[in-house]
Amino acid sequence: MTAMDRHQQAYSYCSLCPKMCRFSCPVSEATQNETHSAWGKMTTAHLVQLGHRPLDESAAKAVHACTGCGRCTSFCKHENTVADALFEARESTIKNGTQPKGAASTLATFSQSQNPFGRELSSLVNGWRSDTPVRYPLFPGCSSLVKRRELIEDTVAVSTAFGAPMGVARVASRCCGYPLYAAGAVDAFREHARATAEVFAEVPELAVLDAGCAFTLKVVYPRVGVELKTRVRTVVEILEENLDHAPEKPPLDESVGYHDACHLGRGLGQYEPPRALLKRAVRDVHEAPSSRAEGGCSGGGGLLPRTMPDTAVEVARRQANEVGGAVVTACPTSKRMFERAGKTSFDLMSILRRWVENPK
Ligand code: SF4
Ligand code: SF4
Protein backbone atom coordinates (compact mmCIF):
# COMPACT_ATOMS: atom_id res chain seq x y z
CA MET A 1 0.00 0.00 0.00
CA THR A 2 1.38 3.43 -0.94
CA ALA A 3 0.94 6.55 1.16
CA MET A 4 -1.61 7.73 -1.43
CA ASP A 5 -3.68 4.57 -0.95
CA ARG A 6 -4.11 5.47 2.73
CA HIS A 7 -5.77 8.75 1.74
CA GLN A 8 -8.08 7.34 -0.93
CA GLN A 9 -11.23 8.36 0.94
CA ALA A 10 -9.99 11.91 1.54
CA TYR A 11 -9.18 12.40 -2.16
CA SER A 12 -12.54 10.92 -3.08
CA TYR A 13 -14.50 13.24 -0.75
CA CYS A 14 -12.95 16.32 -2.35
CA SER A 15 -13.34 15.09 -5.92
CA LEU A 16 -17.09 14.63 -5.33
CA CYS A 17 -17.50 17.92 -3.46
CA PRO A 18 -19.13 21.00 -5.03
CA LYS A 19 -16.00 22.97 -3.99
CA MET A 20 -17.49 24.14 -0.70
CA CYS A 21 -14.16 25.56 0.48
CA ARG A 22 -13.10 27.11 -2.84
CA PHE A 23 -12.54 30.58 -1.33
CA SER A 24 -10.36 29.27 1.49
CA CYS A 25 -7.09 28.20 -0.09
CA PRO A 26 -4.38 30.88 0.07
CA VAL A 27 -2.50 29.26 -2.81
CA SER A 28 -5.36 29.26 -5.31
CA GLU A 29 -6.33 32.76 -4.19
CA ALA A 30 -2.77 33.90 -4.91
CA THR A 31 -2.48 32.13 -8.28
CA GLN A 32 -6.14 32.61 -9.27
CA ASN A 33 -5.95 29.05 -10.58
CA GLU A 34 -8.62 26.52 -9.63
CA THR A 35 -6.13 23.68 -10.14
CA HIS A 36 -4.50 24.96 -6.95
CA SER A 37 -7.70 24.93 -4.87
CA ALA A 38 -8.12 22.16 -2.31
CA TRP A 39 -10.67 20.58 -4.66
CA GLY A 40 -8.33 20.84 -7.67
CA LYS A 41 -5.30 19.37 -5.91
CA MET A 42 -7.20 16.59 -4.19
CA THR A 43 -9.00 15.69 -7.44
CA THR A 44 -5.62 15.46 -9.15
CA ALA A 45 -4.44 13.10 -6.40
CA HIS A 46 -7.71 11.13 -6.68
CA LEU A 47 -7.29 10.59 -10.42
CA VAL A 48 -3.63 9.64 -10.02
CA GLN A 49 -4.42 7.23 -7.20
CA LEU A 50 -7.07 5.52 -9.35
CA GLY A 51 -4.67 5.38 -12.30
CA HIS A 52 -6.92 7.66 -14.39
CA ARG A 53 -4.19 10.22 -15.01
CA PRO A 54 -0.41 9.97 -14.94
CA LEU A 55 1.65 11.44 -12.14
CA ASP A 56 3.47 13.79 -14.50
CA GLU A 57 5.19 17.07 -13.66
CA SER A 58 1.92 18.98 -13.82
CA ALA A 59 0.22 16.65 -11.32
CA ALA A 60 3.33 16.67 -9.13
CA LYS A 61 3.30 20.46 -9.11
CA ALA A 62 -0.37 20.44 -8.10
CA VAL A 63 0.14 18.23 -5.04
CA HIS A 64 3.03 20.49 -3.99
CA ALA A 65 0.89 23.66 -4.24
CA CYS A 66 -0.14 23.46 -0.58
CA THR A 67 1.31 25.14 2.48
CA GLY A 68 -0.36 22.69 4.86
CA CYS A 69 -2.18 25.60 6.48
CA GLY A 70 -5.34 23.58 7.19
CA ARG A 71 -7.64 26.50 6.34
CA CYS A 72 -9.72 24.40 3.92
CA THR A 73 -10.30 21.87 6.71
CA SER A 74 -11.79 24.64 8.87
CA PHE A 75 -14.49 25.16 6.25
CA CYS A 76 -15.03 21.48 5.42
CA LYS A 77 -18.09 19.61 6.71
CA HIS A 78 -16.04 16.39 6.53
CA GLU A 79 -13.08 18.01 8.30
CA ASN A 80 -11.09 16.49 5.48
CA THR A 81 -7.38 16.42 6.29
CA VAL A 82 -6.28 17.85 2.96
CA ALA A 83 -2.78 18.92 4.00
CA ASP A 84 -1.80 15.49 5.29
CA ALA A 85 -3.25 13.79 2.21
CA LEU A 86 -1.40 16.11 -0.18
CA PHE A 87 1.91 15.92 1.70
CA GLU A 88 1.81 12.13 1.62
CA ALA A 89 0.91 12.19 -2.09
CA ARG A 90 4.32 13.77 -2.59
CA GLU A 91 5.93 10.44 -1.73
CA SER A 92 4.90 9.12 -5.16
CA THR A 93 6.62 12.06 -6.86
CA ILE A 94 9.87 11.14 -5.11
CA LYS A 95 9.51 7.59 -6.32
CA ASN A 96 8.77 8.40 -9.97
CA GLY A 97 11.18 11.34 -10.28
CA THR A 98 8.60 14.11 -10.78
CA GLN A 99 9.28 15.88 -7.47
CA PRO A 100 9.76 19.64 -8.07
CA LYS A 101 13.38 20.79 -7.91
CA GLY A 102 12.94 22.92 -4.79
CA ALA A 103 11.58 19.98 -2.80
CA ALA A 104 14.23 17.61 -4.16
CA SER A 105 17.06 19.94 -3.19
CA THR A 106 15.60 20.31 0.32
CA LEU A 107 15.56 16.54 0.70
CA ALA A 108 19.12 16.24 -0.61
CA THR A 109 20.34 18.85 1.88
CA PHE A 110 18.46 17.16 4.70
CA SER A 111 19.88 13.73 3.94
CA GLN A 112 23.41 15.19 4.08
CA SER A 113 23.13 17.30 7.22
CA GLN A 114 19.92 16.20 9.01
CA ASN A 115 18.47 19.71 8.70
CA PRO A 116 17.24 21.85 5.79
CA PHE A 117 20.02 24.44 6.06
CA GLY A 118 23.04 22.23 5.43
CA ARG A 119 24.60 23.53 8.63
CA GLU A 120 26.19 21.78 11.55
CA LEU A 121 23.88 22.79 14.41
CA SER A 122 25.79 21.49 17.47
CA SER A 123 28.28 24.36 17.42
CA LEU A 124 25.42 26.88 17.18
CA VAL A 125 23.71 25.26 20.17
CA ASN A 126 26.97 25.14 22.15
CA GLY A 127 27.31 28.89 21.63
CA TRP A 128 24.15 29.32 23.69
CA ARG A 129 25.18 27.18 26.68
CA SER A 130 24.17 28.97 29.84
CA ASP A 131 26.32 29.07 32.99
CA THR A 132 23.27 29.63 35.17
CA PRO A 133 20.51 27.04 35.66
CA VAL A 134 17.33 27.56 33.65
CA ARG A 135 13.77 26.48 34.43
CA TYR A 136 12.85 25.56 30.86
CA PRO A 137 15.12 23.91 28.27
CA LEU A 138 14.46 25.84 25.05
CA PHE A 139 14.10 24.26 21.61
CA PRO A 140 14.31 27.24 19.22
CA GLY A 141 14.08 25.26 15.97
CA CYS A 142 16.85 25.17 13.39
CA SER A 143 15.43 28.13 11.47
CA SER A 144 15.98 30.44 14.45
CA LEU A 145 19.33 28.83 15.31
CA VAL A 146 20.66 29.44 11.82
CA LYS A 147 18.95 32.66 10.79
CA ARG A 148 17.36 34.43 13.74
CA ARG A 149 19.82 34.68 16.60
CA GLU A 150 18.08 37.83 17.85
CA LEU A 151 14.81 35.92 18.27
CA ILE A 152 16.50 33.51 20.67
CA GLU A 153 18.07 36.44 22.54
CA ASP A 154 14.63 38.06 22.86
CA THR A 155 13.08 34.81 24.11
CA VAL A 156 15.77 34.30 26.75
CA ALA A 157 15.43 37.92 27.92
CA VAL A 158 11.61 37.84 28.05
CA SER A 159 11.41 34.47 29.80
CA THR A 160 13.87 35.68 32.42
CA ALA A 161 11.83 38.86 32.97
CA PHE A 162 8.72 36.66 33.41
CA GLY A 163 10.48 34.60 36.10
CA ALA A 164 10.50 31.54 33.81
CA PRO A 165 14.09 31.52 32.52
CA MET A 166 14.75 29.53 29.37
CA GLY A 167 18.07 28.41 27.92
CA VAL A 168 18.87 26.59 24.69
CA ALA A 169 18.76 22.83 25.25
CA ARG A 170 21.55 20.55 24.04
CA VAL A 171 19.01 18.49 22.08
CA ALA A 172 18.10 21.59 20.08
CA SER A 173 20.80 20.62 17.60
CA ARG A 174 18.35 18.08 16.19
CA CYS A 175 15.82 19.24 13.57
CA CYS A 176 12.26 18.03 14.23
CA GLY A 177 12.10 16.69 10.66
CA TYR A 178 9.24 18.85 9.35
CA PRO A 179 10.93 19.23 5.92
CA LEU A 180 10.86 15.44 5.49
CA TYR A 181 7.14 15.39 6.35
CA ALA A 182 6.37 18.29 4.00
CA ALA A 183 8.39 16.72 1.18
CA GLY A 184 6.43 13.47 1.48
CA ALA A 185 9.47 11.43 2.53
CA VAL A 186 7.17 9.32 4.67
CA ASP A 187 9.55 6.51 5.68
CA ALA A 188 12.50 8.85 6.26
CA PHE A 189 10.29 11.09 8.41
CA ARG A 190 9.12 8.15 10.54
CA GLU A 191 12.71 7.02 11.07
CA HIS A 192 13.79 10.55 11.92
CA ALA A 193 10.92 10.89 14.41
CA ARG A 194 11.86 7.62 16.12
CA ALA A 195 15.50 8.67 16.42
CA THR A 196 14.46 12.10 17.72
CA ALA A 197 12.29 10.49 20.39
CA GLU A 198 15.37 8.58 21.61
CA VAL A 199 17.53 11.72 21.66
CA PHE A 200 14.82 13.69 23.47
CA ALA A 201 14.28 10.96 26.09
CA GLU A 202 16.93 12.61 28.30
CA VAL A 203 14.83 15.80 28.54
CA PRO A 204 11.55 15.65 30.50
CA GLU A 205 10.23 18.96 29.12
CA LEU A 206 10.93 21.34 26.25
CA ALA A 207 9.80 24.91 25.57
CA VAL A 208 9.47 25.06 21.79
CA LEU A 209 9.79 28.45 20.10
CA ASP A 210 8.86 27.62 16.50
CA ALA A 211 5.20 26.66 16.16
CA GLY A 212 6.02 24.47 13.16
CA CYS A 213 8.39 22.38 15.28
CA ALA A 214 5.86 22.15 18.13
CA PHE A 215 3.13 21.06 15.69
CA THR A 216 5.43 18.43 14.18
CA LEU A 217 6.47 17.03 17.56
CA LYS A 218 3.00 17.07 19.14
CA VAL A 219 0.69 16.32 16.22
CA VAL A 220 2.58 14.79 13.30
CA TYR A 221 4.83 12.40 15.25
CA PRO A 222 1.82 10.53 16.74
CA ARG A 223 0.36 10.21 13.23
CA VAL A 224 3.39 8.11 12.27
CA GLY A 225 3.24 6.14 15.51
CA VAL A 226 5.87 8.06 17.50
CA GLU A 227 4.93 9.35 20.96
CA LEU A 228 7.51 11.48 22.76
CA LYS A 229 8.13 10.95 26.46
CA THR A 230 9.18 14.60 26.58
CA ARG A 231 6.48 17.11 27.49
CA VAL A 232 6.40 19.59 24.62
CA ARG A 233 4.96 23.05 25.18
CA THR A 234 5.22 26.24 23.19
CA VAL A 235 7.08 29.25 24.51
CA VAL A 236 3.92 31.37 24.26
CA GLU A 237 1.85 29.02 26.41
CA ILE A 238 4.55 28.95 29.09
CA LEU A 239 4.91 32.73 29.04
CA GLU A 240 1.15 33.21 29.25
CA GLU A 241 1.07 30.95 32.32
CA ASN A 242 3.68 33.22 33.87
CA LEU A 243 2.11 36.51 32.80
CA ASP A 244 1.31 37.40 36.43
CA HIS A 245 5.05 37.38 37.13
CA ALA A 246 5.83 39.78 34.28
CA PRO A 247 7.06 43.25 35.24
CA GLU A 248 4.33 45.81 35.97
CA LYS A 249 4.73 48.06 32.94
CA PRO A 250 2.31 50.21 30.97
CA PRO A 251 1.66 48.94 27.45
CA LEU A 252 3.74 50.38 24.62
CA ASP A 253 1.89 53.16 22.82
CA GLU A 254 1.59 51.19 19.58
CA SER A 255 -1.12 49.73 17.37
CA VAL A 256 -0.40 46.38 15.70
CA GLY A 257 -2.30 43.59 13.97
CA TYR A 258 -2.01 39.97 15.03
CA HIS A 259 -1.49 37.13 12.54
CA ASP A 260 -2.49 33.63 13.70
CA ALA A 261 0.33 31.38 12.53
CA CYS A 262 -1.29 28.25 11.06
CA HIS A 263 0.68 25.69 13.07
CA LEU A 264 0.17 27.57 16.33
CA GLY A 265 -3.53 28.33 15.78
CA ARG A 266 -5.25 25.68 13.70
CA GLY A 267 -2.44 23.20 14.36
CA LEU A 268 -2.22 23.46 18.15
CA GLY A 269 -5.35 25.45 19.02
CA GLN A 270 -3.31 28.22 20.64
CA TYR A 271 -5.26 31.33 19.76
CA GLU A 272 -5.49 33.03 23.15
CA PRO A 273 -1.98 32.80 24.72
CA PRO A 274 -0.26 34.99 22.10
CA ARG A 275 -3.15 37.48 22.20
CA ALA A 276 -3.06 37.68 25.99
CA LEU A 277 0.67 38.44 25.86
CA LEU A 278 0.38 40.97 23.06
CA LYS A 279 -2.55 42.80 24.65
CA ARG A 280 -0.50 43.36 27.80
CA ALA A 281 2.43 44.69 25.78
CA VAL A 282 0.83 47.18 23.37
CA ARG A 283 -2.01 49.70 23.50
CA ASP A 284 -4.03 48.40 20.55
CA VAL A 285 -4.25 45.01 18.84
CA HIS A 286 -6.43 44.67 15.76
CA GLU A 287 -7.45 41.56 13.84
CA ALA A 288 -7.87 40.56 10.21
CA PRO A 289 -11.51 40.11 9.08
CA SER A 290 -10.83 36.35 9.20
CA SER A 291 -8.83 35.12 12.17
CA ARG A 292 -8.36 32.21 14.54
CA ALA A 293 -9.59 28.96 12.90
CA GLU A 294 -10.47 30.85 9.73
CA GLY A 295 -7.34 33.00 9.66
CA GLY A 296 -5.18 33.41 6.57
CA CYS A 297 -1.77 31.90 5.87
CA SER A 298 1.66 33.51 5.42
CA GLY A 299 2.75 31.09 2.69
CA GLY A 300 5.78 29.70 4.52
CA GLY A 301 4.75 26.08 5.07
CA GLY A 302 4.67 22.93 3.00
CA LEU A 303 7.94 23.84 1.20
CA LEU A 304 5.94 26.35 -0.90
CA PRO A 305 8.78 28.93 -0.64
CA ARG A 306 11.00 26.29 -2.29
CA THR A 307 8.58 24.97 -4.90
CA MET A 308 6.55 28.11 -5.79
CA PRO A 309 8.58 31.00 -4.34
CA ASP A 310 6.73 33.85 -6.06
CA THR A 311 3.37 32.42 -5.06
CA ALA A 312 4.53 31.99 -1.46
CA VAL A 313 5.48 35.68 -1.30
CA GLU A 314 2.15 36.66 -2.86
CA VAL A 315 0.33 34.61 -0.20
CA ALA A 316 2.27 36.51 2.48
CA ARG A 317 1.56 39.87 0.85
CA ARG A 318 -2.17 39.16 0.77
CA GLN A 319 -2.28 38.04 4.39
CA ALA A 320 -0.30 41.07 5.59
CA ASN A 321 -2.77 43.29 3.73
CA GLU A 322 -5.68 41.43 5.37
CA VAL A 323 -4.25 42.10 8.82
CA GLY A 324 -3.29 45.67 7.93
CA GLY A 325 -0.57 47.89 9.40
CA ALA A 326 2.34 46.41 11.32
CA VAL A 327 1.84 42.66 11.65
CA VAL A 328 2.87 40.74 14.76
CA THR A 329 3.27 36.99 14.63
CA ALA A 330 4.51 34.29 16.98
CA CYS A 331 6.01 32.31 14.09
CA PRO A 332 9.53 32.94 12.76
CA THR A 333 8.60 31.52 9.35
CA SER A 334 5.61 33.88 9.02
CA LYS A 335 7.79 36.82 10.03
CA ARG A 336 10.32 35.91 7.33
CA MET A 337 7.55 35.62 4.73
CA PHE A 338 6.08 39.02 5.62
CA GLU A 339 9.58 40.49 5.33
CA ARG A 340 10.01 38.92 1.91
CA ALA A 341 6.69 40.48 0.89
CA GLY A 342 8.04 43.89 1.95
CA LYS A 343 5.62 44.25 4.86
CA THR A 344 6.31 45.68 8.31
CA SER A 345 6.26 42.80 10.77
CA PHE A 346 7.45 41.95 14.25
CA ASP A 347 8.06 38.80 16.21
CA LEU A 348 5.89 38.66 19.30
CA MET A 349 9.09 38.09 21.33
CA SER A 350 10.68 41.31 20.09
CA ILE A 351 7.59 43.31 21.13
CA LEU A 352 7.51 41.61 24.54
CA ARG A 353 11.18 42.35 25.05
CA ARG A 354 10.72 46.05 24.24
CA TRP A 355 7.81 46.08 26.69
CA VAL A 356 9.57 44.38 29.62
CA GLU A 357 12.71 46.49 29.07
CA ASN A 358 10.84 49.77 28.58
CA PRO A 359 12.30 52.17 31.19
CA LYS A 360 8.89 53.91 31.68
S1 SF4 B 1 -11.74 20.02 1.82
FE1 SF4 B 1 -13.91 19.54 2.22
S2 SF4 B 1 -15.03 21.36 1.46
FE2 SF4 B 1 -12.95 21.42 0.54
S3 SF4 B 1 -13.16 20.38 -1.46
FE3 SF4 B 1 -12.52 18.84 0.05
S4 SF4 B 1 -14.43 17.88 0.79
FE4 SF4 B 1 -14.97 19.85 -0.20
S1 SF4 C 1 -4.11 23.10 3.57
FE1 SF4 C 1 -4.11 25.31 3.05
S2 SF4 C 1 -2.79 25.49 1.23
FE2 SF4 C 1 -3.35 23.30 1.47
S3 SF4 C 1 -5.16 23.03 0.18
FE3 SF4 C 1 -5.90 23.49 2.25
S4 SF4 C 1 -6.19 25.73 2.29
FE4 SF4 C 1 -4.90 25.23 0.49
UniProtKB/TrEMBL annotation:
Ranges that cross the membrane: none
Pfam families documented for this protein? CCG (PF02754), Fer4_8 (PF13183)
Q: Where is the 4Fe-4S ferredoxin-type domain?
A: 12-78
Keywords noted in UniProt:
4Fe-4S, Iron, Iron-sulfur, Metal-binding, Repeat
- Coiled-coil ranges per the record? none
Going by the entry's taxonomy, the superkingdom of the source organism is recorded as Bacteria
Record region (Disordered): 287-306
Against InterPro entries, the record matches this protein to: 4Fe4S_Fe-S-bd (IPR017896), Cys_rich_dom (IPR004017)
Cysteine-rich domain mapped to chain residues: 138-218, 256-333
Gene Ontology molecular function, alphabetical: 4 iron, 4 sulfur cluster binding; metal ion binding; oxidoreductase activity
Record flagged with keyword Iron-sulfur: yes
Entry keyword annotation includes Cell inner membrane: no
PANTHER family associated with the record = ANAEROBIC GLYCEROL-3-PHOSPHATE DEHYDROGENASE SUBUNIT C, GLYCOLATE OXIDASE IRON-SULFUR SUBUNIT
Put simply, this protein is called (Fe-S)-binding protein
Instruction: Record the organism.
Output: Archangium gephyra
